[in-house]
Description:
By secondary structure, the protein is an all-alpha fold. The protein has helices at residues 14-31, 34-42, 47-54, 65-90, 96-99, 107-131, 142-154, 156-178, 184-205, 212-230, 234-238, 242-251, 255-268, 273-278, 283-300, 304-319, 348-365, 370-375; strands spanning 136-138, 321-322, 334-336. 68% of the residues lie in helices and 2% in strands.
Amino acid sequence: MTYIQQAFKGRNSIWLYIATLVIVMLGWQFIGVIPLLIVATMHSSSLEEMYKSAANNFMDLGIDANLFLFLMILMFIGGLIALWFSVKYIHKRSFTSLITSRKKTDWKRVFFAFGLWFLVSLSLLVLGYFMAPENYTWNFKLIPFVVLVLISFFILPFQTSFEELLFRGYFMQGLGIATIKKSFPFVVFYIIVSVFAYIVLAEMVEFHKYNGLIRFGIVSILTALLVLLLNTNLVSKLSKTPIYNGLHAVLNTTLLPLLVTSVAFGLLHGANPEVEKLGNIVMVYYIGTGLFLGVLTLMDEGTELALGFHAANNIVAAIFVTTTWTVFQTDALLIDNSEPSIGFETFVPVLIIYPILLFIFSKKYGWRNWREKLAGKIVKPNEME
C-alpha cells in the first residue's frame, strides 16, 4: 500500500474528518493556548491590555523569550495530542499509518534529513555572516542560550511534527482518498463557488463588523446545503456525462493533494510578521517549501524525511539567528539588524537547494516512478474493496 492508501486502514466518513478537525482546533487553538493566556494575564495590568496585546502575539508584554517560546509550542503539543487521539479512536487506525507506509517509523531517515539540513542551513548562515558581519550583533547569554538549546532540541520538534503530520499526513491522505469518490468534482466546484460567494458577500455587508457567530452560521448553512445536495441524485446524473467523468479523472491523482496541501501550508504562514515586512512575494518560499516537503513524503512513502528536515530548519532558526521582525524571536547567538528586503537569495532554497536535496535523497533511497508517485491515479487497494 502507498502512503496515501494508509488512510483506508481506518474509518473515513466525512463526518469523522469534520469531527477530527474540530477536535484538533480545540486542542491547538483553545486548550493549548490556555497556559499562554494565563501568563499573558499575569504580565498585563488589565484585561484590555491583554486583549490588545493578543493582536501582537503577546510579544509586547515583556514575557521572557524562552518562556514565550515554550508556551507557544504547548499550543502545538495540544494539537498533536488531539490529532493522535482522533486518528486512533475516531478513525480507528494506528498513528504509525499517519507517519509512514512502513511497518514502523524509520528514525534513521528522520535523523539523516535532520543532520543534512542542519549542516546545510547552518553553513548558509555562516556564509551570510562572513559576507556581511556588520548586519549582525553578538547576543550570547549563557543561561538563556542553554535553556533555548534544550527547548529547541527537545520540545520544538513537537511543533514541526504537528504541522507535518497535519498537512503532509492527515490532510494529504484524507484529500487523496477523497478524490476517488464520484462526488469529489462536485464538492470541489461547490466549495469554489461558495468561497467566491462568501468573499463577495463579505465585501457587500462588511462581515468584519459582525461577530464570529454570524460568520460561523453562514459557513454552517453552506455546509448543510452541500450535504443536502449530495443526498440527491444530482451527482449520479452528473457522473453519467463525459465532461464530469473527465474532470474526475483529472482530479483523481496524487498531484491534487500535493498542490492543495502545499498551498495550504504556505497560507498557514501568511500571518507571520515576515509576510507583512517583505510582502506577499515571500509566500513563494513558504508554498515552495510545502511543495518540497510534499514531494519528499510522496516519493519516500512516509513523512520521516519531512519530519527531520522541518525540525532542523526551525531549530537552526531558533538557536543561531534572531531578528525583531520574524516569527521566531529568541535568545539566539546572533541578532540580524539588517533591513528586511526581498532578493534572489530568498528564492535560492526553492529554486536551487531543494532540487539538489531531492537529488541526494533520491540517490540514497533509490526513488523510482516519479510521475506515478507525484501525479498517478489514486485507487482503493484490492484487499480493501
